[in-house]
């Protein structure tokens, strides 16, 4: 396994782990909403992004209008827009059904780039689908479906989240491809600043719609201290580190494999949820996580073998 491929795989898995921390948000923010948390997280991430840009050497050459325009677009597609669709899906059809649609990401990603013949992806994809079905099986029981607000709204939002994520993965890789000299840190900083600015711009609209609880519950430390602490902590880990790791993965892996690896976010999310709830997994959850991991490992092996064959042919 060559160094570039290995770095890409570990970066994608780390990004999936970082993004999976978002699954524990509803359990740690008390009476505040996920929109309040997103505001804190993205603003802090934007400040970190500014710090990265100010500390980078010869950064002025990268602060061009085309670069800012591309970064703002990617920030909306992959972070603000993706967050809003995922959150909306969770609100209308529950926090478990929506992640199940992540299983479509590798399929759409490979369809978009056609980076590997479908026959090589069928077994890894089948394992991913079975794993997702096992992990999310209890979400589709009659009892749980009865508590869902609206599948007609939630499922289209979940599908929209899948489309936005694939769009972001493809667009981000294309943007980096035409900017081979762009440092990953600077590019991450541009995207982080873009996400922070957009969440600040959305705050007055969201507050008018009653999506934020900060104006009602208060901005003071006594009331919102826990929100600030978790917001800053997960901003640094889930957003800053996640964005950086995904940019590294985008430089080293095809979108189809990156999309396959990002499905491991569900497995990490299940494990994190179990830790938060201080319980052992059910047999179905344990089997689902195991099958998901098997699908991810098999995908890595398939892509590595194909890459090895291609290199041998070229040499």
Automatic annotation (TrEMBL):
Keywords: Membrane, Transmembrane, Transmembrane helix. This is Drug/metabolite transporter (DMT)-like permease. InterPro entries: EmrE-like (IPR037185). The chain crosses the membrane at residues 7-29, 35-54, 66-83, 89-108, 120-139, 151-170, 190-215, 227-249, 261-280, 286-303.
């Amino acid at each position: 396994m060559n160094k570039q491929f290995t770095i890409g795989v570990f970066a994608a898995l780390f990004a999936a782990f970082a993004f999976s921390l978002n699954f524990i948000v509803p359990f740690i923010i008390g009476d505040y909403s996920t929109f309040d948390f997103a505001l804190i997280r993205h603003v802090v991430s934007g400040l970190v992004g500014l710090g990265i840009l100010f500390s980078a050497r010869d950064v002025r050459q990268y602060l061009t209008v085309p670069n800012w325009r591309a970064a703002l677009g990617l920030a909306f597609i992959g972070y603000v827009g993706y967050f809003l669709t995922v959150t909306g899906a969770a609100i209308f059809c529950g926090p478990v059904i929506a992640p199940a649609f992540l299983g479509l990401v590798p399929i759409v990603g490979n369809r978009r780039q056609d980076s590997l013949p479908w026959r090589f992806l069928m077994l890894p994809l089948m394992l991913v689908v079975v794993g997702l079905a096992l992990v999310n099986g209890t979400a589709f029981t009659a009892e749980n479906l009865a508590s869902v607000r609206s599948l007609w709204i939630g499922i289209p939002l979940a599908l929209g989240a899948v489309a936005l994520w694939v769009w972001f993965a493809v667009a981000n890789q294309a943007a980096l491809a035409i900017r081979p000299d762009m440092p990953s840190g600077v590019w991450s900083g541009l995207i982080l600043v873009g996400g922070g600015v957009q969440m600040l711009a959305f705050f007055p609209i969201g507050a008018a719609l009653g999506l934020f609880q900060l104006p009602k519950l208060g901005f003071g430390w006594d009331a919102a201290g826990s929100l600030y602490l978790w917001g800053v902590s997960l901003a640094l880990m889930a957003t800053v580190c996640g964005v950086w790791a995904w940019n590294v993965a985008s430089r080293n892996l095809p979108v189809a494999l990156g999309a396959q690896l990002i499905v491991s976010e569900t497995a990490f999310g299940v494990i994190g949820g179990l830790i938060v709830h201080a319980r052992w997994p059910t047999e179905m959850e344990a089997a689902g996580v195991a099958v998901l991991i098997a699908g991810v490992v098999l995908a890595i092996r398939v892509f590595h073998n194909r890459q090895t064959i291609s290199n041998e042919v070229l040499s």
